[in-house]
Amino acid sequence: MQATVSSKYQITIPAKLRRKFHLKPGMKLVFDEKAHDLRAKPQYEFDGDAMKSALGAAKDFEPGKTSARILRELRGYERGEL
Question: Which among 10, 42, 50, 62 has most CB atoms closer than 10 A?
């Protein structure tokens, strides 16, 4: 797979790689200057609000609780008790 550097030093990332790495327009790539070859990786942004909303009811539990304990409290019983 290859890409050509334009006169403005731009490249087009092949579609196969865009799909593989879930690249979207506007995403940033981070280049590793210490590598001996050209390496870039996507820089994913952490959205704390989206993460909290994905957690649903668990977002109100205090830090340090295990997922098993949170599930036990949400269910009101231990799974093995059925």
Answer: 42
Give strand ranges (E) for the chain.
Answer: 28-31, 40-43
Residue in the block written with tokens 């949400």: 74
Mean pLDDT of 47-63: 68
Token pair 């087009």: residue: 12
> Which sequence spans correspond to the domains of the chain?
48-81
Look at residue 28 and give its three-state secondary structure.
strand
Nearest-angstrom CA–CA distance, 15 and 40: 16
Least reliable range by pLDDT among 36-40, 49-53, 62-66: 49-53
